[in-house]
Write a structure and sequence with these properties.
The complex is a heterodimer.
Chain A: H1 8-32, H2 49-56, H3 58-92, H4 97-109, H5 112-127, H6 138-162, H7 166-174, H8 179-190, H9 192-208, H10 211-216, H11 224-233, H12 239-270
Helix pairs in contact in A: 1-12, 2-12, 3-6, 3-9, 3-11, 4-6, 6-9, 7-8
Chain B: H1 3-33, H2 40-45, H3 49-82, H4 85-100, H5 103-114, H6 119-126, H7 140-164, H8 168-176, H9 181-192, H10 194-209, H11 213-218, H12 226-235, H13 240-269
Helix pairs in contact in B: 1-13, 3-4, 3-7, 3-10, 4-7, 5-7, 7-10, 8-9, 10-13, 12-13
The chains are: A mainly alpha, B mainly alpha.
Organism (chain B): Tabrizicola soli
Protein name (chain B): ABC transporter permease
Pfam family, one (chain B): BPD_transp_1
Chain lengths: 271, 270
């Protein structure tokens, strides 16, 4: 139980930093209503033209659809492989488990730009032997994203397994359950919420991925972040503000919804 | 090795081996074979004034960003962990909402605020403080602001863990013996969370070293950092050998820093 609460100075400082954190997110809202074709704050006149551009310019819909497709495939592959790997470490306790774990987490801890160059090397090499999983293809991007996001799923699932009571598995085993039954009827159902969390987190990570995507795509596989990047680099396109507002509204709704739900849940407990 | 080992551990390790480890060896090969065999690119990377300038700028910006981001995250996390229920929830929202929003949207938000026709310059000019717009972006200032903004949530998580593990009774004992709030903070609370601060600082610094998107957008090609230099050497003025050599140097540096971090964590656990 915390009894010494922070004083006025600490609270004021934290409030200023909180404002700093929210400032750029609020700033895009007025800019998205500008009537001009360049980055500006509306001066009396407001316009929805940049929101209309999001609907009318097919590039945005294509980018969103591509990002969703890549995100779904990459997160399913990454979570499935990560679940198998984490189960392997937990059930079999292999020798050199630490080394294997370090290897599995490598794409997460390496600097993103090094991973990007590595995956660029990988996909351009693959391009020489096939056209499907290659540089600047959606399958190539999905594979590269799977490599980048799998470590996050490994971390989540391994933590969940380490908190799981081993005796459940031992009981099943002693009653003659085979490895298939133990995995699919005993262990996985017990960590199903973590599996869903891992799917969700890896999907979001792939949906937002830009560092690696920039290296491995050029004109064909233009994901939503790649499209935004192109609108940000040279002449700043205010349509970026409109799409940003849409993305911010989605995140704020989800986070706020979760917080309110928790607030009510803990409030009930406190009473 | 049994069939089970292969079945469970095999798929992920095979994917990472084929798509990550082998290609990284390929990148290393580039660094010693392009344009000609030898360690010339490493020599060039560590003696070329342009590359050295970029490395020095990267280290300097990362150090500044680390200090500011960890200090800001500390003040914020203090309320997140120890504040009243309402304050705690509000701070949590302010950490989680930016955390889930993409780096591009956040960089764009800073452009909207800081650029010459942006909101801050607009206000200052309409209030008559300025005749010429201040250059707040496309320079190191913009890069530092954007990176600090991105990294505060990442620093907040390890700090929160450290602060939650502080034993409340120690603070109450100090209070009971008449220590002032300021003294409790500086002499008891801060030293007790020292390992959390060091952990957060290392994490932020390692993250910042490999930063690409924020400096590229907010630096506007003028304050190039290491990651952007690699991109430029691969895609714009192709010198793949040099790009690969700098990547290997970056990877080794981050590996060493992570080694320090793990040793420190092990020390803290003991």
């Amino acid at each position: 139980m915390i009894q010494l609460r922070p004083g006025l100075l600490a609270t004021t400082l934290a409030a200023l930093i909180a404002v700093f954190l929210l400032m750029p997110l609020v700033a895009v809202i007025p800019v998205s209503f500008t009537p001009t074709r360049y980055l500006a704050v509306p001066d009396g006149e407001w316009s929805l033209r940049h929101y209309r551009a999001l609907i009318e310019n097919p590039a945005w819909a294509q980018g969103i659809w591509l990002s969703i497709r890549i995100g779904v495939v990459a997160s399913l592959v990454a979570t499935a492989l990560a679940a198998a790997f984490s189960l392997g470490i937990w059930m079999l306790k292999p020798r050199f488990a630490g080394v294997l774990m370090g290897l599995a987490l490598l794409p997460m801890v390496a600097p993103p730009v090094v991973s990007a160059l590595t995956l660029y090397f990988f996909l351009t090499t693959l391009s020489k032997v096939n056209d499907l999983v290659a540089y600047d293809t959606w399958a190539g991007v999905a594979l590269a994203h799977a490599v980048m996001i799998a470590p996050f799923a490994v971390v989540l699932i391994s933590v969940a397994l380490s908190q799981l009571d081993r005796r459940i598995d031992l009981a099943a085993r002693s009653m003659g359950a085979g490895i298939g039954t133990r995995v699919f009827r005993i262990i996985l159902p017990n960590i199903r919420f973590t599996l869903l969390t891992a799917l969700f987190l890896t999907f979001v990570l792939s949906w937002e991925e830009i560092g690696v995507t920039l290296f491995i795509t050029s004109v064909d596989a233009v994901t939503l972040p790649r499209l935004m990047w192109m609108g940000l680099r040279d002449n700043i396109d205010p349509a970026i503000a409109a799409i940003s507002v849409v993305l911010i509204v989605i995140v704020v709704t989800v986070v706020l919804g979760k917080t309110l739900w928790q607030w009510r849940a803990t409030g009930r407990k406190a009473r | 090795m049994t069939a089970r080992h292969v079945l469970l551990l095999g798929p992920l390790l095979m994917l990472l081996g084929a798509a990550y480890l082998l290609p990284f060896l390929g990148v290393m090969r580039w660094s010693v074979t392009l344009p000609e065999p030898g360690f010339g690119q490493y020599h060039a990377a560590l003696s070329d004034p342009l590359v050295l300038g970029v490395i020095w700028r990267t280290v300097r910006i990362c150090a500044v960003v680390t200090v500011i981001a960890v200090a800001a995250a500390y003040a914020l996390t203090l309320i997140w962990v120890r504040g009243g229920r309402t304050a705690r929830t509000l701070v949590e929202l302010c950490i989680m909402i930016p955390f889930w929003i993409s780096v591009l949207t956040r960089a764009f938000g800073w452009l909207a605020l800081l650029s010459n026709k942006g909101i801050i310059n607009g206000w200052l000019q309409s209030l008559g403080f300025l005749s010429e717009p201040l250059t707040l972006v496309r320079n190191e200032f913009g890069v530092v602001v954007g990176m600090v903004h991105f990294l505060i949530p990442f620093a907040a998580f390890p700090l929160a863990t450290a602060m939650r593990s502080v034993d409340e009774r120690v603070l109450l004992a100090a209070r009971g013996m008449g220590a002032s709030r300021t003294r409790i903070f500086w002499q008891i609370f801060l030293p007790m969370t020292k390992n959390g601060v060091l952990g957060a600082a290392l994490l932020v610094f390692v993250f910042a070293l490999g930063f690409f998107v924020t400096p590229a957008i907010l630096g506007g090609g003028r304050s190039v950092m290491v990651a952007e230099l690699i991109y430029l050497r691969i895609f714009q003025s192709p010198d793949w050998g040099l790009g690969a050599a700098i990547s290997v140097i970056l990877m080794v540096t981050v590996g060493l820093l992570l080694g320090v971090m793990m040793r420190q964590n092990r020390g803290a656990a003991r």
